[in-house]
Amino acid sequence: MAGVLGGTLPVTALLALLAIPLALRVSNGLEPNYDNPYGLMAIMGVNIQVHLVAGVALVVAYVALPFDVISDRIPILGQIDDLVIIAAGMTLFVALTPRHVLEYHLGALE
Asked: What span, in angstroms and rounded, lies between the C-alpha atoms of 95 and 50?
């Protein structure tokens, strides 16, 4: 919030605050489930949602709002930087997801 008010961060950075309710749910669920691995796995599933909500909100804001690394007025290059940001966001999400959680959810899709 201070970064936005101070002008060092764009207003779109506030979209990451949408993940706060999920982050509080994870924080409140860790201590009671410390000795319960199955309860802890459920809480860590919510932790994945925190990354997803924050990441998707920031990627959507980057693509939708006029703040760009390369201006969209430059043909082809302006759109390629948006695609690179989206691909990097998806790759980061998959990289941050614990392997067992990823395998569990991919298995549920089959």
From this structure: 14
Domain ranges of the chain: 14-109
Of the chain, the end-to-end C-alpha distance in Å amounts to 42
Rounded to 5 degrees, φ, ψ at 81 are -65, -35
Higher pLDDT, 106 or 51: 106
- For residues 10 and 4, the answer to whether their CB atoms sit within 8 Å is yes
Compute the CA torsion angle 23, 24, 29, 34 (nearest 10 deg). 70
User: Has this prediction a pTM greater than 0.70?
Assistant: no
Task: List the Cα angle 81/84/89 in 5-degree steps.
Answer: 130
Q: Give the pLDDT band (50/70/90) at residue 68.
A: low
